[in-house]
Amino acid sequence: MQVHIMFFGQLTDITGTPNLILHDIPDTKTLQETLNELYPALAHTKYAIAMNNKTIQGNSILSGDTTIALLPPFSGG
Question: Average pLDDT for residues 54-64, to the nearest whole number?
Answer without folding.
Answer: 92
